Fold:
Amino acid sequence: MNPKKLKQLKKRAKKRATAPYIEQMTRYRTLFQNDPKILVMINNVLESDRLLAAGLAPQQLPVLQVPDDFQDELFQRINASYAIGDPAGDTEWERLSAALPKVDQLLRDFRDYVEDQYGMWAYISAPFLKDLADFTGNAPVLEVMAGNGYVSKGLKRLHPTQTVITTDSKAWTHEANNQTGRQPVTTVEALDAVSAFQKYQDTVKFVVMAWSPDKLTIDWDLLQAIRASGRDIPLICIGEKYGATGSKVFWDNADYQTDTAVERLNQHFRPFDLIHDQVYVVR
Structure:
C-alpha cells in the first residue's frame, strides 16, 4: 500500500478510536465538578462550542491551561475531604491525577477543535466584535481572507446598515478535512485579497485581514496594493507577529498604529493558548 495512503488510514482509525472532543470534555466536567479552576475552563469550552454551533459569536476565553500548582491543590483538597487511610481518598486521587494530563491536553487542543469543527482560525469572540464595530463605526469594511466570514457576520449583526464586503479566495475548500470555506456563516465572494481590494478600494474605509497564512506573502502583496492606491485605508490585521500567521516580509515592513484606539481593539482580544495573536492596525 502507498505509504501516504496507509498514514491517512491510520489517522482515520485513530480518530474513530477517540471519543469526540465535546463528549470527552463533558465527561471531564462531571469528573472535576468539585474543582472550580478546572471546571471554569471546561465550562468556557463547552459554552463556546454551544454558541458556535448555534451560529453565534462565542464569549472571550480564559487561558486554557491547567495551572502548574493545581496538582498540589488537588492533593490538598482530597486530603481534607477524606480521613487518613480511607481507600476512597486514594481512589479519588488516582482517578483525578491520572485524568489531569488528558484534560490539560484537551484544553490546549481547543483551538484545533474550533478550526476543525467550524473553520474558525482566529478566535472571534462577541466582546472583540463589539470593540471592532466601535472602531470602524458605520464605515464600509472589506474583509479579505474571510474564511467562513465570522468577522463580517459579527459586524453586520451589530451594525445592520453597515456595508461589509466579505471575500476569500476559497482555496481552502480544496483541502481534505478543512472546514474553512465549507460552512460559511455569511455570503462570501470568491476573490483573493489583492483582487478584492482592487475591486472595492473606492468603496471601503477599512480592510480586515484575520490570520493570513504563514509563509505566504499574500499579506505583503495586499499591503503594497493598499499603499499603491494612494488612499489612507487602515489594514486591521489579526495575527501572531513573526509566529503562526503572516509572512516575515509583511511584519518587517508594516507601519503599526499605536494609540488608545488600538489598545481598545485589543482589550478583549486576549491569548488563551500558546499562540499570542493580537490585533494590529497597519498602514
User: Anything to note?
Assistant: The chain has twelve helices and six strands. The two ends are 52 Å apart (CA to CA).
